[in-house]
């Protein structure tokens, strides 16, 4: 048996390497963090501020350059691969994947970020095509997609630790007073109305991609107020309901009730209408490594086009098209690519550093929520409280965190005593810059202590079974849909191509950081590019 | 003081009941155990009463000391007996010694109390009150014990709890009469220590119970081992062997032939020259024993998760007699791997597949009863082949049974359900799955004790209390079977 104190010390040693990464960052975070957290890529990203690059020593030509190897960039690349155009994808990190990054150890693969995909809406044709190619959709029955049963989230799916008991599902009910349950029910009924509603323009009130939602002012007006205000206006006051809605905002946006646009808040409940021949409409697709599985499917056949450890540092327009200058970390040389178009699959705070053009909007309107994600490996099963058994998603009522996901849930074999759990915590309660700075200054011990404090309530003595804790700080984790952002001018202007040569593809242009939006943005930019090359 | 009579009487009877219950649990034959324990206990109380005359001075402090001793001995008796049962040969000696000790101490209590109170209360009044409280306490205890204590606290905690009460009486009395007692402080501190010990015992009771599994098994345990996957326990009774996995009976050697003949022959007996057979689960080799009765069989692949089970049934001589050395046959290949993991990579096809997993009592096991798993089976079953699934009891878990049938149908199989009676299990059910109709005559091997052409036909017919109820099917993303199964068995055993 180990004491808490020497446990923390041991963890701290174990994490030294991983924690070195955020600790090194005194100010702005780099771009997409990569699997090996220490050193070079941070340094590489940081060079963008110093801009001390030598003149390019090599030059080449291609049709399109994609900058950024997250889901948007890879989606654009996948689409371009189907054409005859030539292209190169530049990724700063050692691996592509962005927010959908994953890792693995001897027990299981696990996610570092996004970890599931709800069943896509049936009009999201390109996404459905992709899922068909990836064999996530295995066929059709009665015109409805049949999803691969190995990828549909296995039962038991969700449980909530509330009143010292693990209840089934995440909507609070165990020990919740009648009155509160009534309020929760009427809230969910209201959300259901929004789900089935159409706007005055005949479009669905809320859908994915966000762009295709109704423009009815009666609906868009909700973007002007916060979710907190929306609940107040509708006389919702049950603490259980408020917790649940706050949990949902934190889960999807990394934001709080008081800084989430009500339109975005409603969108969470009212936009997912996927249907399937073999699963309920609230089913999700998931994998041990989370959406990193989708990333691996996206990048199939793309290896020849992808360059990792490649930091684009300048994008110059000229008569024939664009020149992209990048620094290759392996050879330590600068290189030039002449292209007819470029797709900036980078978040706007990065694009800002690469482009000189005035894009007619204020970059400051793009705010990013910081996150902490921890992958925790245990040597034995978790000590359980009463109620439902270990599920895929395990949430604690009243906690600051979003609970944890069990990476072994999609394993078909008998459950192993060792576990890998992925613990998620959006950093809330102040402005993103303050939170980000604070996150980087937080030590390994402090993070571990906080995580264990949270985990001990549902799992007594968990520290005795923990093998290691690996922590990842996402400085710019998710775009925040604050009021007036999604349907304000800045976001729509940011999406406009520059001179029909520079195109933009990133989920921050949708205002919501989810796989579907990143995929949509990538696909849309690639289609636009193919019109000109 | 009279309240203490009531408490003391209640505690006294509780210890007696605890000892009786424990003895009948552990040793069986409850009538004998209860009679002898009660007799011994009452006799010991007589000894105690007799001995009380030898206690002369400081009656109060004697009373308190005895209360402390009763509390400790009575409180810990159940725990001690529990732990010692598996370790000690002369268990009865210890059991009856403890009963005599407790009885003697309890027997000392009332005479002492009467002597303490005799100067304070009129004698006729005293006798009347003391015995009134004594008998009320007895009634109280005898009602409390079966209705509240055993169901909610359990045996061990009950015993600790009443030890605690006994010691508390000592403490309260000591506190009340502190000026009349010599060595009050010493007694008070002893009481505190006793309370702490009993409290700890109470808190650890659950772990103690887990340590001792003797309560679960009616017969003598001859082999017990924890593999990474399960607890394997083999017991030997007067006329049979029983195998338990995680406390669930897998077979009794008396009637396992009924189960295994019914599992294998209705399916395999109608195949034309089956050669390649797959057995999933069934590491005891009994199913393989039945399969080997068909001379056309060339190869049997047995996939069982736990090598502790297959090794046991390959190496132990008595068990090898039971499965007729089936696991040593040159035709068999044993693979210790998770069946679901193994089957996903399987390309070979099989003429007959036996699926003999534990019942779907949790989500891990439930995965082996899903459309996804059955589709994998469909993929590796030869076109004219057939498979059989052990599908729990259609009597106890009627809906669960028909969910298995519906799940097989949903996965593409033609199905045929049947059931048979296995005395140690009760009414048990199986489902056959085919890719095409098999209307061929049976050709059973000679020497079967249960299945024959005339006895097999009735097995396919279900009486009204077991007929089909369900069309729901079990999938990985919606394990309806696990919830249904859990509910049905809980309702049945309640």
UniProtKB/TrEMBL annotation, chain A:
Source organism, top-level taxon: Bacteria
GO molecular function per UniProt: oxidoreductase activity
Pfam families, alphabetized: NAD_binding_8 (PF13450)
Needed cofactors: FAD
Alphabetized InterPro entries for the sequence: FAD/NAD-bd_sf, Flavin_amine_oxidase, Zeta_carotene_desat/Oxidored
Protein name according to UniProt: NAD(P)-binding Rossmann-like domain-containing protein
Record lineage: Bacteria, Pseudomonadati, Bacteroidota, Cytophagia, Cytophagales
UniProtKB/TrEMBL annotation, chain B:
Leading EC class: transferase
InterPro entries in UniProt: PABS (IPR030374), PABS_CS (IPR030373), SAM-dependent_MTases_sf (IPR029063), Spermi_synthase (IPR001045)
Subcellular location(s) per record: Cell membrane
Ligand binding (S-methyl-5'-thioadenosine): 230, 304, 338-339
UniProt-annotated binding residues for spermidine: 260, 284
Key words of the record: Cell membrane, Membrane, Polyamine biosynthesis, Spermidine biosynthesis, Transferase, Transmembrane, Transmembrane helix
Keyword Iron-sulfur set for record: no
Residues annotated as catalytic: 356
Protein name (database record): Polyamine aminopropyltransferase
NCBIfam families per UniProt: PRK03612.1 (NF002956)
Record membrane topology: Multi-pass membrane protein
HAMAP family: Spermidine_synth
PANTHER family, per the entry: THERMOSPERMINE SYNTHASE ACAULIS5
Cellular-component GO terms for this entry: plasma membrane
Gene symbol of the encoding locus: speE
Domain PABS: from-to ranges: 200-435
Subunit composition and interactions: Homodimer or homotetramer.
Similarity comment: family membership: Belongs to the spermidine/spermine synthase family.
Pathway: Amine and polyamine biosynthesis; spermidine biosynthesis; spermidine from putrescine: step 1/1
A GO molecular-function annotation: spermidine synthase activity
Lineage of producing organism: Bacteria, Pseudomonadati, Bacteroidota, Cytophagia, Cytophagales
Membrane-spanning ranges: 33-52, 59-83, 89-114, 135-154, 160-177, 189-205
Function statement: Catalyzes the irreversible transfer of a propylamine group from the amino donor S-adenosylmethioninamine (decarboxy-AdoMet) to putrescine (1,4-diaminobutane) to yield spermidine.
Keyword NAD applies: no
GO BP of this protein: spermidine biosynthetic process
